[in-house]
From TrEMBL:
<comment type="similarity">
    <text>Belongs to the HPPK family.</text>
</comment>
<protein>
    <recommendedName>
        <fullName>2-amino-4-hydroxy-6-hydroxymethyldihydropteridine pyrophosphokinase</fullName>
        <ecNumber>2.7.6.3</ecNumber>
    </recommendedName>
</protein>
<keyword id="KW-0418">Kinase</keyword>
<keyword id="KW-0289">Folate biosynthesis</keyword>
<dbReference type="GO" id="GO:0003848">
    <property type="term" value="F:2-amino-4-hydroxy-6-hydroxymethyldihydropteridine diphosphokinase activity"/>
</dbReference>
<dbReference type="GO" id="GO:0005524">
    <property type="term" value="F:ATP binding"/>
</dbReference>
<dbReference type="GO" id="GO:0046656">
    <property type="term" value="P:folic acid biosynthetic process"/>
</dbReference>
<keyword id="KW-0067">ATP-binding</keyword>
<keyword id="KW-0547">Nucleotide-binding</keyword>
<comment type="pathway">
    <text>Cofactor biosynthesis; tetrahydrofolate biosynthesis; 2-amino-4-hydroxy-6-hydroxymethyl-7,8-dihydropteridine diphosphate from 7,8-dihydroneopterin triphosphate: step 4/4.</text>
</comment>
<keyword id="KW-0808">Transferase</keyword>
<comment type="function">
    <text>Catalyzes the transfer of pyrophosphate from adenosine triphosphate (ATP) to 6-hydroxymethyl-7,8-dihydropterin, an enzymatic step in folate biosynthesis pathway.</text>
</comment>
<feature type="signal peptide">
    <location>
        <begin position="1"/>
        <end position="26"/>
    </location>
</feature>
<feature type="domain" description="7,8-dihydro-6-hydroxymethylpterin-pyrophosphokinase">
    <location>
        <begin position="14"/>
        <end position="166"/>
    </location>
</feature>
<keyword id="KW-0732">Signal</keyword>
<dbReference type="GO" id="GO:0016301">
    <property type="term" value="F:kinase activity"/>
</dbReference>
<dbReference type="InterPro" id="IPR000550">
    <property type="entry name" value="Hppk"/>
</dbReference>
Length: 197
């Protein structure tokens, strides 16, 4: 089977994060492992990889600093099949998707966006995006929501993503990644720094 995606392939955006050792090693090693696994996926072509960023754990005090990155890719897989592939990579590194939200973890791969798709529909995406902060840690959607409902609020997502897809535009907010990053309050970027070596 050809590894080249078709002309109808969609731009997919993925966030990577780790702040605990995994079966692949330390957090930065785990991110490298996950990136290599993404390169091996059929019908997927990676088009950009950000620098690694050191980011304080979210919420504050919930664990060691994270290593975060972002990747853009063209993909012929459906969004759900791509998400399943991301979850399989997480599982290969020892992650089990259970327990409290926003806890320390060996690997977290989030499908942020898939072209300009809004899933499962506009009303559901808008409802999850508008969830009050106090409820965000308590509730997880039972289905794939695209774009990721928290992406516009998170410096640890937007700073790496701006390196690989600054012009991607949120289909509900009408803002590019670069504009969403510029609109963040300073607190959303506090303590973040790119890894230079």
């Amino acid at each position: 089977m050809s590894r080249n995606p078709s002309k109808n392939a969609n731009l997919a955006l993925v966030a990577l994060g780790a702040n605990l050792p995994s079966s692949a090693g330390a957090p930065a090693d785990t991110i490298r492992f996950a990136l290599n696994k993404l390169l091996e996926l059929p019908k997927v072509v990676t088009t950009g990889v950000s620098r690694f960023w050191i980011t304080p754990a979210h919420p504050a005090g919930s664990g060691p600093d994270y290593v975060n990155a972002a990747v853009s890719l063209f993909c012929d897989l459906s969004p759900q099949r791509l998400l399943d592939a991301l979850h399989a990579i997480e599982a290969e590194c020892g992650r089990r998707r259970e327990g409290a939200r926003w806890q320390a973890r060996g690997l977290d791969l989030d499908l942020l966006a898939y072209g300009d798709l809004v899933l499962p529909d506009v009303a559901v995406q808008d409802r999850w995006r508008g969830l009050p902060p106090a409820e965000q840690a308590l509730h997880a959607p039972p289905e794939l929501i695209l774009p990721h409902p928290r992406m516009q609020d998170r410096g640890f997502v937007l700073a790496p993503l701006a390196e690989v897809a600054p012009n991607w535009r949120h289909p509900r907010l009408g803002l590019s990644v670069a504009q969403m990053l510029a609109a963040l309050p300073e607190a959303a970027l506090a303590g973040m720094r790119p890894v230079t070596a």
